[in-house]
């Protein structure tokens, strides 16, 4: 492979990584807009929805994250890998669930999107808390 070809590949990969950064932020903004729209539409019921399904969504998230961390640890993965797996398990595709439940082309039942929206809201707090804890553990062990 020539050095010119290698340079072109490096530039393309660097631009691709920069694009990936923006796609991640764009998807986060898109999720926020979907959740905000759903919550505005159902604003009269949001409190009761949290009471009805909030604890269940929190339990589901904590249980799956604990299982992910435990299995990664039992598999003798390093702390960074165990943390990445745990967060990935905790962050499910709430946007897809919301879209399928509320889109006219699919289920067309916005009320069915409420558990996914609540899960999506909770996942930021729980995954963020876990990431903070994992970072502290990494700092303490070094």
Automatic annotation (TrEMBL):
TM ranges: 21-40, 52-77, 89-107, 113-134
Domain of life: Bacteria
Keywords: Membrane, Transmembrane, Transmembrane helix
Membrane listed as a keyword: yes
UniProt entry tagged with the keyword Disulfide bond: no
UniProt-recorded name of the protein: Transporter protein
Source organism per UniProt: Halomicronema hongdechloris C2206
